Amino acid sequence: MSLLEVMLDPVVATVTALVVGLCVGSFLNVVIHRLPKMLERGWHAQCAELRGETPAVEPAYNLVVPRSACPSCGQQITALQNIPVVSWLVLGGKCASCKAPISARYPAIEILGGILAAYAIWRFGASVRGLAACVLLWSLLALTVIDLDTQLLPDDLTLPLLWAGLIVNIGGVFAPLRDAVIGAVAGYLSLWAIYWLFKLIRGKEGMGYGDFKLLGALGAWLGWQVLPVIVLLSSVVGAVIGITLIVFKGRDKQLPLAFGPYLAIAGAIALFFGEPLVRMLYP
C-alpha cells in the first residue's frame, strides 16, 4: 500500500484532519484576539489623517508579530508552551511564569477546530470538497467568536470568504456556479432589505452590514436554495439561545445580540445537512 493510499484511508485522513484542525484552532485564537485590535489601530490612523494629524508611529502589530506573550507578565510563550490543548493541560491552565490563569476558551477553540475538520473529512473524504469544507468551518468559527466579543464581522474575513465560495464553485464543489452567484447576491440583498425595512419601521438598526456579507458568503458557498434553510435555522438557534440567556442568565432583553454566530451555526448545519433540509422545504 502506497503512502498516498494510507493518507486517503478514511480513518487516517480523519485523524490527520483532527491534528491539523487543532493546530489551525491555535492560529484562530491569534486571529480572534489580534484582528479586531489591528482594525482598531487602522481606524485610529484613518481618523488622525482625516483630522489632518500625523498618525502615531506604533510598533508592528499583526498576525505574525509580536510573538505571543502572557498578557499579565509579558513573558513570551515558547513553542513547547504553545502545543494545542496539551500545553494548556500540562500548565494547569496557568502561565508558566506568573501563574496567571489562561482562559479555557483557548483550548476550547482548538478542540472545536479539530472536531469540525475531522467531521468534514469523515463526511466528505480527503478531497477538494473535504478541504474546502474545513476552510469554511474554520472561517465561521473565527467569525463567530469575533462577533461574540466585539459585535463585528470584519470585511477582512467575510469578503475573502465570499470570493472563496465563488472560486470553489467554479468546479461545482458544493453548488453550480450559477446558483452560487445568485446565492451571494440574494444572501446579501435579503438581509439588506430586512435591515432597511426594520430601520424605517423602528427608527434604529436591527443588524450590521457584516451580517449581509456573511449570508452572502454562505450563499456563494452553498447556493441560493439553501438560504431559506439558513435563515430559518439561524432564527431558531437565535431564539433558543436568546431565551436561555434571558431566563437563566438574567440578560437584559433590550441588549442587542450578535446575529453572526447564529448565521455561522446555521451555515455549518446547512453544509452537512443542507440537501435533505432543502428537500423538506421544497418537497
Structure description:
This protein has helices at residues 3-8, 10-50, 86-90, 105-124, 128-150, 155-168, 177-202, 209-222, 227-249, 260-281. Helix 2 (10-50) packs across helix 4, helix 4 packs antiparallel against helix 5 and helix 5 (128-150) crosses helix 10 (260-281). The protein is an all-alpha fold and 283 residues long. The mean pLDDT is 88. The radius of gyration is 21 Å and the shape is globular.
Main features:
283 residues; 10 helices; mainly alpha; globular; 0% strand
SSE blueprint and pairings:
Layout: H1 3-8, H2 10-50, H3 86-90, H4 105-124, H5 128-150, H6 155-168, H7 177-202, H8 209-222, H9 227-249, H10 260-281
Helix pairs in contact: 2-4, 2-5, 4-5, 5-6, 5-10, 6-8, 7-8, 8-10, 9-10
> What's the mean pLDDT score?
88
Return the structural class. Answer: mainly alpha
How many β-strands, per DSSP? 0
Strand content: under 5%
What's the gyration radius in Å? 21 Å
> Biggest sheet: strands, sense, closure?
none
Number of helices: 10
Proportion of residues in helical segments: 55-70%
- Uncertain segments are none
* Measured distance between first and last alpha carbons: 45 Å
Overall geometry comes to globular
Q: What sequence of helices (H) and strands (E) makes up the elements? A: HHHHHHHHHH
